[in-house]
């Protein structure tokens, strides 16, 4: 298990260190885990990350009748927009949507240039206005933070003020990048790993989250 790290003070962070979350993460880390088992573990971990991320969502009360009595039911009053970052975030999208069926989904496609490690956008499909709407960005790996900063700037440019980055793993370098960018967002993750290596992979990490889900193409 990686050692705990300092979290930048201007970056609110929820660390989902529940044993079940850590068990799924261990399955994902294990190089022997095949694509199908990796996808299943990511789905299950996503359930736990979303569960924690949604804890503070606003709700409204609506009167209903149970078979026994009148009572007030609770439902989300402002469901978040889900934004998986392609391609690795796709593996989190279905589970997040299953937990919040009333949510809508946007998409951002960002590839990482393997030489410069810089984010290269190739697709943006988002509502024009995100004012007043919570947004959950789904990306299993917060590595350099470049793709995440790029994605969040797209959201802020559309008026978003309540953005949560939901990641299976985070590198301290990625958290530092987010903190330095001072974007006013929050992070929900199951682990802060040790560091990035020279190729920009999280250590110990789990390898390439896209390749681990879908195969190396
Ligand atoms: N993206 C990945 O999929 N894995 C890493 O370790 C870093 C970035």
Description:
Belongs to the UPRTase family. Uracil binds at residues 202, 207-209. Pathway: Pyrimidine metabolism; UMP biosynthesis via salvage pathway; UMP from uracil: step 1/1. Helix content is 31%, strand content 28%. With 217 residues, it is α/β, with parallel strands linked by helices. The protein has a single domain (13-57, 77-208), classed as Rossmann fold. The strands form three sheets. Strands 1, 4, 5, 6, 7, 8, 9 and 10 form an eight-stranded mixed sheet that branches. The protein has a two-stranded antiparallel ribbon with strand order 2-3. It starts with 12 loop residues before the first strand and ends with a helix. The mean pLDDT is 95. It binds uracil (URA). Residues 88, 141, 143, 200-202, 205, 208-210 line the site of uracil.
Q: What is the terminal separation in angstroms?
A: 30 Å
Structural class: alpha/beta
The description of the largest β-sheet is: 8 strands, mixed
The shape is: globular
Nearest-integer average pLDDT: 95
CATH architecture annotation name: 3-Layer(aba) Sandwich
**In what range is the share of β-strand residues?**
25-35%
E-strand count:
12
The molecules bound to the chains, other than polymers, are: uracil
**Into which percent range does the helicity of residues fall?**
25-40%
CATH topology: Rossmann fold
Please provide a brief summary of the model.
This is Uracil phosphoribosyltransferase. By secondary structure, this protein is an alpha/beta fold.
